[in-house]
Amino acid sequence: MTYQDIYAAWKSDPEAFWMQAAGEIDWFRAPTKALFDDRAPFYEWFSDGLVNACWNAVDRHVEAGRGEQLAIIHDSPITHSYRGITYRELQARVASLAGALRARGVEKGDRVIIYMPMVPEALEAMLACSRLGAIHSVVFGGFAAPELAVRIDDCAPRAIIAASCGLEPGRVVHYKPLLDAAIDAAAHKPDFCVIFQREQEVAKLIEGRDFAWHTFQYGVEPAECVPVEGNHPHYVLYTSGTTGQPKGVVRHTGGHLVALNWSMKNIYGIDAGEVFWAASDVGWVVGHSYICYGPLLRGATTIVFEGKPVGTPDPGIFGRIIQNHRVKTFFTAPTAIRAVKREDPDCEYIRDYSLKSLKAVFLAGERADPDTVQWVEGHLKVPVIDHWWQTETGWPIAANPFGIETLPVKHGSPSVPMPGYDVQVLDEAGHPLPRGTLGAVAIRLPLPPGTLPTLWNADERFRRAYLTTFPGYYETGDAGMLDEDGYLYIMARTDDVINVAGHRLSTGAMEEVLSAHPAVAECAVIGVADSLKGQTPLGLLVLKKGMEDQAGQVRKDVVRLVRERIGPVAAFKEAIVVDRLPKTRSGKILRATMVRIAGGEDFKMPATIEDPAVLDEIRQALQAVGHPQP
Length: 630
Ligand code: COA
Ligand code: AMP
Prior knowledge:
It comes from Paracoccus contaminans. Residues 3-57 form the Acetyl-coenzyme A synthetase N-terminal domain. A 7-stranded mixed beta sheet has the order 5-4-17-16-18-19-20, sandwiched between helices. The chain has a 5-stranded parallel beta sheet with strand order 7-6-8-11-12, with helices on both faces. A 4-stranded antiparallel beta sheet has the order 23-24-25-26. The chain has 2 domains: 3-307 and 387-441, 3-Layer(aba) Sandwich (Rossmann fold); 497-624, ANL, C-terminal domain (GMP Synthetase, Chain A, domain 3, 2-Layer Sandwich). It is 32% helix and 23% strand. By secondary structure, the chain is α/β, with parallel strands linked by helices. The radius of gyration is 24 Å and the shape is globular. The chain contains 18 helices and 31 strands. Coenzyme A (COA) is lined by residues 117, 141-142, 166, 168, 173, 279-281, 284, 286, 308-310, 333, 335-336, 339, 364-365, 500-503, 568-569, 571.
């Protein structure tokens, strides 16, 4: 079957297509149908089935005779350590942790926050929640305490599972003080915390509230898998929106398992027993879908990598991991490749390794620029596949379906829509645009299994954020076009979300921090083009009258404040002071125009601009700090 056949089969009978895909998942009670549209536009999938994610990711492989195969490989160049965990060991470890959580009162439907670095215990914590039908919410370790507090208050967890520390090159990330500060700041208090003590740092536990990962499990009964409905929330993952309040993307269990399993085989070309490596973090959607659940559902081996593309210890690390663990499919972000290319332009470090196991490289998280794609193709001689998706969708919207067939690659395009996604490019009035014309990229409803049915406790926000601009469609927030062959091109965001080193960040959230500074009258944060990270945030500050001589101090203060309130991941390192900001006559700040000026791009003078002269002032101020980059 070709991609065309499979896409057409889905289009002509989506119900049959997804019921067939559901047949590859173990159900305690099989669903009677795929789509449940009685609450449209809140569509659900496989709602009347009974299923358990942990059973499908772990136990069933042990039953099928894969118990001795490695499920997880932890490779940590930061701690110079390596560890393998078989499916049988994983089953025992997860059942034990789940039993201990249950003994402390965690039940189906309870939320559990997980705040952990790239250690296998993070996956075990996710799987233990899944085993009980508890809803996990993993928080990325690069977020600061106030961001963790916002998530605690939004999802009201019964428990928090954290590690004592994370390890960044040259720096220990002290998780425990961040956790304590977040719990202090939050209105909701968890019943208890479980702390995984790492040998690099033993955290001080709070008597009665905190339990150590190991002792907590002594003497408990291991827990069995609890059947949950197909539409039971599997997890909540917060992602950046336009405001400081992150969006809690909900993932339902049944559709999640069906879609991930389908994608592992048909997109990434992975079968049971093969090795898949996504070099991301469990705190992001890539970590949920393709470090934890996807590979394990398939009975493959997943790699938990605690390191960076460069500096741990050198730009050959990707080669070493691929060779030593016989990785078949490798997934990373273009920014990681750019980091390697910058330090090792001729790929000398990687040349030392045998990469014969490697069959494809997948790139996502940001637009894959053709230079980066060509550089990898030239050096690794395997298909390099850009693919496009979002936290909201949980699995690729558009890709080159390597597991079915490798279509001709068009540089700059993440290729074609996957079954389930009817992708349209719309004008402002919501009419489909002719091929080759740039517009808003939208997906006709219903979205396929595995995508978000709503936002956590925020149906109305879900409707407003995604469904109202183009009735009958899901608004992706990306702009792009389809070409005459049906290939998609994703060019930019249509909102104020920026993408820094493959991390999705809210400029609105950073502006909230800047404007809280007592000397700041007005501010804007924009994503300026960056040759390594794609974009980096830059603050523009207008100071209150009489504060002008404080400019140097205020610039330093806001950099520190963003790090303290949002976290190091915001990578907010630069703010400049300007006399005024460019605005429309109705007072809207012209952020997109400033982004173009900072990137040295042409732009059309906005018809509604209040005073065009401001743009020259902004250009000069940006030039003074090196924008556009040469
Ligand atoms: N916990 C705590 N801090 C973290 C962190 C984590 N899990 N991840 C990143 N940070 C910190 C970094 O240490 C850095 O701190 P610093 O300001 O003290 O140096 C800051 O957040 C910014 O990190 P980052 O933007 O990642 O920059 P970097 O210079 O450390 O690394 C790259 C640059 C390109 C090597 C790195 O960003 C990378 O590997 N990116 C790939 C991203 C990716 O896989 N994304 C997933 C989508 S597929
Ligand atoms: P996240 O939710 O963090 O996965 O970020 C999703 C956003 O990242 C998308 O809406 C895009 O703006 C951007 N993105 C992800 N992958 C790609 C890609 N392959 N090409 C272009 N943009 C991408």
